[in-house]
Structures are given as C-alpha cells and as structure tokens.
Known about the structure:
A hairpin with a 3-residue loop joins β1 and β2. The two termini are about 20 Å apart. This protein has one domain. It has a three-stranded mixed sheet with strand order 3-5-4. Strands 1-2 form a two-stranded antiparallel sheet. By secondary structure, the protein is mainly alpha-helical.
Amino acid sequence: MRLRGACLRLPVTEPTSLIESIFWDCLGHKHYTRLEGGAAEPEYFPADTAASRPARIVYRQNFIASAFHEVAHWCIAGAQRRKQADFGYWYEGDGRDQQAQGRFLQVEVRPQAVESFFHAAWGSTFHPSLDNLHGPAGDVRAFAQAIADERQRLQRQCLPPRAAIFAQALANAPQGDSKP
C-alpha cells in the first residue's frame, strides 16, 4: 500500500518497530540509512559502503521521542554532515554549566521544532527537552517559546524535504494499538 506516493507500510505491532519500518520505507532505503532503537545513548553512524553497512540513526532504548528527535537531526543535516559520526557536531553530556547549556539550547531549537511535527503527525505529545538533569536547565519558557517560534517559521516556509516526507508517512500510518 502506497502512502500518498511516498512510502510503503509494513505490518508490525510495536510502535517503535512501526516507526523504524516507516522510516526505512519512505527515506531509509533511498538514503541507505537505518533507524534502530535499544541504545543506551543516541548516536549517528555514517554509512560504510566498503563494508556494505548502511548509516545508522540509533535512538535511546525504545523511546518514540528519542527516535523522532534523532530523525529530526538527520533530516536537517546536509550530505556532508551525514558522512560524519554524530553529524560532526560537538556534544557535551549531562552536567553542562550555564554557558554550555546556553549553547546547547541554541542548537536544539530547530531539531526540536522539527521533532514536534513528527509527534503531531504520529498523535503523540511533544515535550521540549533541556537534556541537562545534573546541571542548570536554562530558561524553560524561553526555550519552549523559541521552539514554538521556529515551528511557526517552518510552517510558513516549509519543513526540510526529508522531514516533510517522514511526517506525512507518520500521519498516514495505521491507526490502532500501535499508535497512541
């Protein structure tokens, strides 16, 4: 069954398995990229074509929010960034100081805005993530507002193409026990 001309739907029962299948069908096979859950920490691994290994977007445990967040980063990353581990970005883990947290929040606005579209398409609730449990969180309201502003900008100007394809495929996914 075609999903508005973009994706083929596979029969699966686990929500994250369904999301992985949707991703593969509408984007992964074309871009030689797999979405995989079950990791302790999220990470992106570029393809190793010499070893016949596709790129891998690895998300935390089997958390839908983590899958959507990591796919959002992938949808934003350009071709050169997708050739680098974790897209070539720095990541300072939990416990960032105020200055590092401020930098983190600046670069997270767009990915989290894109992620919010995936949640809306899937029917789940988006929650902004400050990702700093053991350090200063920063201004939660200002961050949430920045995400909302970026979301409105994306609605006016258009989602990145891969994000639009994935959001449409999520919206077209089967209803029932697999979706909230």
